[in-house]
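User: Need the bound-state model for iron/sulfur cluster:
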Amino acid sequence: APVVRRTRTSSTCCYCGVGCGVLIDAEHVDGGPSRIVGIEGDPEHPANFGRLCTKGRNLPQTSADPAGRLTHPELRRLRNEPRHPVDWAVALDTVADRLAGIVQQHGPDAVAFYVSGQLLTEDYYVFNKLAKGLLGTNNIDTNSRLCMSSAVAGYKLALGADGPPTCYEDLELARTVLFAGSNMAYAHPVLFRRLEDARERDPEVRWIVIDPRRTDTAAMADLHLAIQPGTDVALFNGMLHHLIWEGLIDSAFIANHTEGFAELKQLVRDYTPRMAADLCGVALADLIQAAEWFGRSPAALSLYCMGLNQSAHGTDKNLALIHLHLATGQIGRPGAGPFSLTGQPNAMGGREVGGMATMLAAHREIGNEQHRAEVEQLWGLPAHTLSAKPGLSAVPLFEALRSGQVKAVWIACTNPVHSMPDIGRVREALQHAEYVIVQEAFRNTDTVPYADVLLPAATWGEKEGTVTNSERRISRVRQAVAPPGQAQPDWWIANEVARRIEARLAPPGVAPMFEFKEPSAIFDEHRSLTVGRDLDIGGIDYARLEAEGPQQWPFAAGAAAGQARRYGDGVFATASGKARFHVTPYRPVAEPTSARFPLRLLTGRLRDQWHGMSRTGRVPGLFAHSPEPGLRMQPEDAARRGLAAGELVRVISKRGELVLPLELSDEVNSGTVFAAMHWSGQFLSSGGINEVSQPAVDARSLQPELKHAAVRVEKA
Ligand code: SF4
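Assistant: Bound-state model below.
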């Protein structure tokens, strides 16, 4: 009988930004296949202390069935031909030739990369270096643009640097918890359990939920403000008005540690609680109660997510919430502060390596000459090599592909034909593109059919690297089994193509930049770029992560430990050292309702599904909680339209339509409907809810307003 060996490997869950530690059990048959057979929460990991949510517990089942995985590179010479399998050498040479040729003919900005917050930090690093350092384009954006970029803009403008000032321990120490635009019970379940435990221990802890929907999180709140969609800024301004005029602000903190308060105070003078409550559609007493609980709390923590970020005014929403903390001094102390909950497992790591169109490595700025010079020096590039021109962010990137301004795109570890707003235009963009490279683990995503070349990627449980979770903690991701077929780690694929392009394009005298043999070497180079920066990780390497487990940044060389909270000394990361208030007037949603499109469509997550379901959709048990797609409508709204539960309805916006079964639900208010973001081409005849969503973006964060669109609903 063949010998079967069992292993247990410590790693990190691949889904959300909680970043739970996991222990993966695998079986290896001598001379035969390996497979993941079990999982447990890692009791030692400081994010979850052994807990996992339903998605995490079902990870082995997502790896159980090799069918549906991409196992060989494939390419096609002509668009109307089917792809055929090729070996890696042919695939890599072809990609390198095509990209180098397009750069030589049209310039570096004719190429773009669209990558993912689910890539590991090392993968992200190599892609970013390939685009910016080798090809000379900043056209590398990521699905993190759809996720956290408004939080990034808010932190940078208010506090001077990206990243939350808080840590998970604050969940247990907060006395007032304000959830804004976050159904945390579903989206960050393990952290939500920590909050539940804390409230059980101390029933005096207050929860305030601000959300247009009565989510499961809202149902458990002490106070739920079901605001009209998009009115968050008015609410926060109204709360600030109350705090100012009731003397609940911390004048000494404002005077010593902030600037710009007078201008904001002038603005919020107009936002009386009555005016704000009316505008938001909530009771005046509820707005005042929220302000009182926040302002009088010994420790107020706010937790926020896509409801604030996925908005054409997402930056202002983030700023207006941060203002409440700065005005009351609720920041930099245990249990207090603004805490953005990262959607994806490694959106933080991607920002750290600068893997977006608007930033450089280690939180540096593309427009800053000194920053460009530092990166050029660290990458061994001649002066003035890096482009000073900001790259194309997600929405304009696909528009540029559609118009022909960008000729080629390399999509890695993400499914834009499901997740981008107004996906009809994304499909057109990929049809118009001269060359589409798709790097994927799974065969059945909505984007795969558009690939001219398909590169099979290793995925969770099959590769090595690191991720950074919502509290700035870097954890190792480890390989438990070999990838199927010829699939390779994402960093390896990018590195191999880069080496080939380097041979074709690099000017003489430039030292090779892509000599990486293993992920630890990439991490070491990334670490060297962070030294002296706000996110300094000079004290973290793979050896420390191995010996001491996950670590938080900043963690400079020589420090005994990372820093759990930032700005505890009242010194912020701005040039003046003071946090900055901004003037944040309320602005309505980008697409108002009208006679033709009278309903407000909200989007969000289900409890047991993840993004486009390419992984969770493989596990029958994960459909038990929400078996079918559906459009949720308030019963009286449905009755007025002659619609009944279960019948098929057509959801129509200015951009497109889709058909869904109707669900009657009191979760939404009259005039508002809700659909989950997950269902797409694998499960529907259409591409999902982004057939109708709209692509307006926030002017500063460039994040699209995926949370709201004006629609009408008809019998199908
Ligand atoms: Fe994974 Fe997030 Fe669930 Fe933790 S909470 S097990 S990281 S999906």
